[in-house]
Amino acid sequence: MSPSVPSKVIFGRGSWAEARRLADILRQETVGGALLLAAAVAAMIWANSPWSPAYGALREFTVGPAFLHLNLPLAVWAADGLLAIFFFVAGLELKREFVAGDLREPRRAVVPIAAAAGGVVVPALIYLALNHADASAARGWAIPTATDIAFALAVLAVIGRNLPSALRTFLLTLAVVDDLIAIAIIAVFYTQSLHPLPLAAALIPLAAFAVAVQRRHRSPWLLLPLATATWALVHASGIHATVAGVLLAFTVPVRSRPGGDAHGDHDPGLAGHFEHRLRPISAGIAVPIFALLSAGVTIGGLSGLADAFTSGITVGITAGLVIGKTVGVLVATVLVARFTAATLDEGLAWSDVLGLSMLAGVGFTVSLLIGELSFGLGTEADSHAKIAVLGGSILAAALASIVLRIRAKAYRRIAEAEQRDTDHDGVPDLYQTPDAPAVDR
Known about the structure:
Strand order of the largest sheet: 1-4
Low-confidence stretches: 1-7, 260-265
Radius of gyration: 22 Å
Oligomer: single chain
Largest sheet: 2 strands, parallel
CATH topology of the domain at 71-190 and 240-406: Na+/H+ antiporter like fold
């Protein structure tokens, strides 16, 4: 290597195997993002139409076994039940990335982890700075800390379809790490009353589930009752039930049994099997239904909108998403580059990182969930939070679109190079160069 060539590069190409896998994930999440946006728009229209009482009745409709204390409104089932599927898939993705994916290499993992941490800390500090004098409003400090991967990828599908694969992977990984930080925040800071007995009891089906998946059992007749029991007991403990989704995901083995599959490295393992089955349900059903039952907020005309946007809650969330996310993600990435003496990969510019940092301000699913936990579903503060999440996310997406479109021609050139396959063997030429990741050779 020439002395003039930097030895450390951030946003470099990953392996071809990971590129193919992540491309499939991104396609599914993009479709899910379109459904998410459609559900959110439908909820807003419905909640502000003459049929808004029907919308409220739907959210409050109670269903479930009363003897298990699970006779819950549909809105709660969506937040506690359907989002547990979402977090189970997120947990699987994170474990796969760090155990068997490109991020098992610390030099690749440090950038999205640092960026996610910066994107959590700075928005929270901005929100608290604007609401520190109001103790009730300050409870919402975690609302602007989340990035919605489906929403963000739906925006990318429109304005950044040629974005280099390394940048798409960065955004996906950042959002997944972000979600896992959010679930930790929910467990620690939004558990109002803890009941130790059901929490201890939850360890029994959780352990049984872990043993079953470690023995490579795939039968839903075995695993689904164990997962449901774990979820129900975590719900009864007072900890938000979505935490159960992450705990269950972390027990699932990523790698296939040694010598147990003839496909070798191409076998996705049990985590890959579950992710393949459940991601379409998460992205296409669970998250859109949650959006439909949570995003609807009665604005109350121009006066109601004016009241909302003069609220400290609204200002704090909007500033956190639009300014805090951008600053947190960008500064953390710059610091990693500075302290590791790394440079951007060839063809990329810091304006690309700026655009992605802005796009990280698209917070929706988890932000809405934390808003409900902070202020209570249907309260005025919760309505202000939802308006801020929607408005801030749209503003962040618009600003990111402007920045990323400036580099559209450069992205097209990079995309053409990444897809060129002169020998027609199904593997792009860039992944067969001498410096390509070893797993692809």
